[in-house]
Specification:
The chain has 279 residues and is of the alpha/beta class. The chain has a single domain, classed as NAD(P)-binding Rossmann-like Domain (Rossmann fold), CATH 3.40.50.720. 40% of the residues lie in helices and 16% in strands. It has ten helices and twelve strands. Helix 1 links the parallel strand 1 and strand 2. Helix 6 packs across helix 8. The chain is globular and about 55 Å long.
């Protein structure tokens, strides 16, 4: 029996989960597009039946937010329908499904942190397809849906690396959006939370992000500060960088339920960023 199975194990989050699970001495195995097509129900059923896992952590997703606007059917297949296949296969062998979702299921009109029971109202194709996945994950009894946000991790493209790359490339100044509020989250900290949740009696929706919140401008400013750069960073509005997919203006997530289940809070986003950059 494999204790932990991971989909999307070549992504930033999947790699972190696999690495930290192995550090804990857990038997772990993972797949990505090269070895498993999660949109193929038969492949999913065979993969899970062969490994007989205790827990499946679904880190696979179509995460190109803007591309989802023109490829919603493809995104729906990966973010939605495939989650149903995983849920059914997990239910068939008595495994728990931990499915990773997103803050984009909310419309971003609140001004206080979103709790798990707040109404969902996605405004983008990405958000709609991820919400479809949540509903399919919830179609089986033993499920956990973990909503997270603003992810960055080792070995991948992310906002932190985009800022670092511009600083290292000699940029004279940066312009960064300052009217979107959220919770930057280090994949290693989220992976730790996912593995903790695999050990406890937890069901339903749980929010998991690093503690505290900021704007993209505040996030970029902290990256520059830690890197010792004095590059000017101009605060601009979302209107200055219009994208195909709308972004939630406010998607801060309340993590009280996660803290209660784990017995401790998530590290602050500033602490997480410092550890990431130092690594």
């Amino acid at each position: 029996m494999t204790e932990i199975l991971i989909t999307g194990n070549q992504g930033q989050l999947g790699r972190a989960v696999e690495r930290l699970a192995a550090k804990r001495g857990l038997s772990v195995s993972g797949s990505d597009l090269d070895s498993l097509d999660i949109t193929n129900a038969f492949q999913v059923e065979q993969w899970i039946a062969t490994h007989q896992p205790r827990t499946v952590i679904n880190c696979a997703a179509f995460t190109a937010v803007d591309d989802c606007e023109t490829k919603e059917d493809e995104a729906e297949s990966i973010n939605g329908t495939a989650v149903g296949y995983l849920a059914e296969a997990c239910h068939g062998c008595g495994a728990r499904l931990i499915h990773v979702s997103t803050d984009y299921v909310f419309d971003g009109t609140k001004t206080t942190p979103y709790v798990e029971s707040d109404p969902t109202e996605p405004t983008s194709a990405y958000g709609r397809t991820k919400l479809a996945g949540e509903r399919l994950a919830a179609s089986v009894p033993d499920h956990v849906i973990v909503r997270t946000a603003w992810l960055y991790g080792l070995g991948g493209r992310n906002f932190v690396e985009a800022i670092r790359r511009q600083i290292d490339g000699g940029a004279k100044e940066l312009k960064v959006v300052a009217d979107q509020h959220g919770c930057p989250t280090f994949c290693d900290d989220l992976a730790t939370a996912l593995l903790d949740l695999a050990k406890v009696e937890a069901h339903g929706i749980i929010h998991a992000v690093n503690s505290g919140d900021t704007t993209w401008h505040g996030f970029a400013s902290e990256v520059a500060r830690i890197l010792g750069s004095s590059i000017p960073i101009e605060a601009v509005t979302t209107q200055a960088f219009l994208r195909p997919a709308p972004r939630p203006a406010y998607s801060v997530l309340d993590t009280t339920r996660l803290q209660t289940l784990r017995g401790r809070p998530m590290p602050t986003w500033q602490d997480a960023l410092a550890r990431y950059l130092q690594s």
